[in-house]
What does this fold into?
Amino acid sequence: MADENEIQAQAGAPAAVEGGEQTEGRGRGRGRGGDRNRGERGGRGRRDDRRGNRDEEQGEELIEKLVHINRVSKTVKGGKRFGFAALVVVGDGKGRAGFGHGKAREVPEAISKATASAKKAMVRVPLKEGRTLHHDGLGHFGAGKVTVRSAPAGTGIIAGGPMRAVFESLGVADVVTKSNGTSNPYNMIRATFAALGEQVSPKAVAQRRGKKVADLLRRGGASAEVAQADAEAIAE
It folds into this structure.
């Protein structure tokens, strides 16, 4: 009997080993499957990231100008808590621009908040020949008063401080400006956008009045040929 038990034990040992290998093989299979599933999930995540980057690449390129950064502090129990406020102007260089401000504990976060706010508040301004304004304008906000004037080609941007950032991001190449009153960048920016909001193109005026652009330009004393040529040159 002892010999038979030893024989059966010897015969059953390989079966146990084989069973263990099979179990281990199943475990490895599950592990591989798990790795494969995790790899697929990771691959999907990477594909989504690539799609997001592709969407950003296809989006329009914006000009971002940091106008002002102000450090503020709040006195709390135990000391002072510092923060930062950023003022940013954003534009596409083709007649659209906006401004925004953001507050945060760190400068990069404040700038990103201001940039996001500026992108949401972008407005379109009609430009003459894509380089200057159609007519003069006045802007007023708080104690700030701003005057903007159209200029011939080659004049450049005659503006200082925050106003220059607005016209550079807007895509204006020739303009003459004057700021009176306050030098607060927030009020100057708001007054500038108030003046730009009053800009109207001859094409819009002609559509509102039910006339042709050449008829409006001819009333300034120009001949019919010159008025027609100027009307064809107006893009907006």
In short: The beta strands are 63-76, 79-91, 96-104, 123-124, 137-141, 144-150, 157-158, 175-181. The CA atoms of residues 214 and 227 lie 5 Å apart. The first helix runs from residue 2 to 58. The two ends are 108 Å apart (CA to CA).
